[in-house]
Amino acid sequence: MFSDSQISHATIQAYLETHYCVRGAMPATLRIGEFNASLAAIHDAYAVRSSAFVTACNPLGQMLDDAANVSLQIELARELSQRGFTFIDGIGKHPSNGWPGEPSFLMLGVSLQDAKALGLQFGQNAVVWCGGDAVPQLILLR
Length: 142
Known about the structure:
This protein has helices spanning 9-17, 37-45, 66-82, 112-121; strands spanning 19-22, 28-30, 51-54, 86-93, 102-108, 126-130, 136-140. The chain is of the alpha+beta class. The protein has one domain. A seven-stranded antiparallel beta sheet has the order 2-1-4-5-3-6-7, sandwiched between helices. It is globular and about 35 Å long.
């Protein structure tokens, strides 16, 4: 499925298993490949047909300290605001592998192309994109 990626199989598997948690007034826990009724409700509430779950933390899967990750997330939030995106706080957390949860955002109304470009801009291995079917997809970027 992801055989042409530069990302290790173990890392891809961890991304597939991660819980992508949307916070706020309409919380949701997104799982790759699984329809999410709460996400569909978020799309309806914001009158959008797509969204993407993105982070700026730990570029290329290299763990940074908390201060560096906070700085990167602030930069990502600034970029999203400048581009006019509505976004909701979240966190991506694997249920059992011990990797620290990564603060993230659910960007609303973003195209797949723009989500990929933003992930690349912030040095990410992947983004989670969700189309009108409200089924999160793992999109590898390298």
